[in-house]
Design goal:
The protein has about 400 residues and is an alpha/beta fold. The protein has one domain: Alpha-Beta Barrel (TIM Barrel). It is built from 15 helices and 11 strands. The strands form 3 sheets. Strands 1, 2, 3, 4, 5 and 6 form a 6-stranded parallel beta sheet that branches. It has a 3-stranded parallel beta sheet with strand order 7-8-10. The chain has a two-stranded parallel sheet with strand order 9-11. The longest helix is centred in the N-terminal third of the chain and has 21 residues.
């Protein structure tokens, strides 16, 4: 394989061998392959006319005096979606059919609130597990289950059903009580992210002005996750915190949703040293599709997403890389209406840790609006010249191998 540089045109970077080059061939490959999204964020994107009407009515007043803010609109929309799954048989059937249509066999769902350690974070996380995990599972008549092992993922693919992998996007619902890791494990959780942008009791996040690394409590936290065979995830962690955690863990670790800082120096992106250390330990790196994290422009393209993925493949090898979209809600505020102020309304301390410059949720990705466009990612991998074996690894086999190694 010849040397490749970021920004080269489609197909220039890889030699295709045995690939499925046309869109129709790539769609067929997508339908056949094991597909795992390592940051699936749309478990309550329910195809319901009632939900859509509710969302559109509030969207008309969004940003206007008396209108609801984004968080309130989306929370109320999800609450109505959960009710629809419990109460409407047609919606339940359409929901499972939607999973079939997008072709995702397994989704890692990261619940968690951007709150400091304490009871509110703990109780809120339990509530989110109940609504965003167990509502789809308990209403699906066995078509959606919780994956407790790699075998559960494989069986879902073989049977044409689907699984959710339960995760938490911060350690604050646990801190400072390590025994709460056991509580979440008993709820089916097999993944836990150490930080979310800011400093917590475990260590420093990626948007902190300094990076003090993993704390003493953080060392104990990683040890407990290792004991439970739960995944240690470094998404949103600072560089030193991530490297400390990789060294401390006796198991492979992950960046379930991230990007390459060498391609675009966003705070959410990872340094080469971290990417290499994750892969060297047998870990996994999922590349997100959030446009504001991938380039400076407000209008994103799948080529920019692919550049990050290709760079990481060249840096660490094909066997460590996958896709964690981190973008997917069907009912979400359109980019042209959104702003930092509407996404993160003022009031109190900004525990999310983002600033306006991070462009976290007011940019648009052409070619991927929501989970309904998931097959476009497979088509684009083929367009960029990845062959069939490589695409199958990126779509799901790499994550499956990693999940089996850590969780069992």
């Amino acid at each position: 394989m010849r040397e490749w540089h970021p920004g080269e045109p489609d197909r220039a970077c890889r030699a295709s061998a045995g690939g499925r080059d046309t869109p129709d061939e790539a769609r067929q490959l997508h339908a056949e392959a094991l597909v795992i999204d390592s940051k699936y964020g749309a478990t309550l994107s329910v195809p319901s006319p009632r939900v859509s009407q509710f969302f559109e009515e509030h969207l008309q007043n969004f940003g206007k005096p008396g209108g609801l803010d984004r968080r309130t609109i989306e929370a109320q929309t999800k609450a109505l979606a959960a009710r629809e799954l419990w109460e409407n048989a047609e919606v339940r059937q359409a929901y499972v059919k939607q999973w079939d249509n997008i072709g995702v066999d397994a989704g890692l769902v990261c619940v968690g609130l951007v709150l400091p350690p304490g009871e509110e974070a703990y109780v809120g996380c339990v509530r989110l597990v109940a609504s965003e995990i167990f509502t789809p599972v308990l209403t699906s008549n066995g078509q959606i289950r919780v994956a407790l092992s790699a075998k559960d993922i494989e069986q879902a693919h073989e049977s044409g059903t689907h699984v959710l992998i339960v995760g938490c996007e911060n350690s604050t619902p646990v801190s400072p009580h390590l025994d709460r890791i056991d509580h979440f494990y008993n709820l089916g959780m097999r993944y836990m992210q150490l930080t979310y942008n800011l400093r917590n009791l475990v260590g420093d996040g990626c948007t902190e002005p300094t990076d003090g690394g993993l704390s003493k409590f953080g060392h104990a936290f990683v040890e407990r996750l290792n004991e439970k065979r739960m995944i240690v995830d470094l998404s949103h962690s600072g560089t030193r915190t991530a490297l400390d955690a990789i060294k401390k863990s006796n198991q492979a670790v992950s960046i379930s949703h991230g990007s390459a800082k060498a391609i675009y120096p966003h705070d959410r992106a990872s340094e080469d040293a971290v990417l290499k250390a994750v892969a060297d330990k047998g870990g996994y790196i999922g590349v997100y599709v959030v446009p504001g994290f991938l380039q400076a422009e407000r209008e994103g393209t799948l080529d920019r997403w692919a550049e990050h993925l290709e760079y990481i493949v060249r840096l660490v090898g094909i066997d460590a890389v996958g896709i964690g979209t981190d973008l997917g809600e069907v009912n979400t505020i359109p980019a042209e209406l959104a702003s930092f102020e509407t996404h993160y309304p003022p009031g109190g301390f900004a525990w999310h840790g983002f600033t306006r410059e991070h462009q976290s949720y007011h940019t648009r990705m052409h070619g991927y609006r929501n989970i309904l466009d998931w097959p476009n990612l497979t088509i684009h991998l083929a367009k960029r010249g990845f062959n069939e074996d490589e695409i199958r690894k990126i779509l799901g086999l790499n994550f499956l191998r990693f999940f089996r190694d850590v969780v069992g």
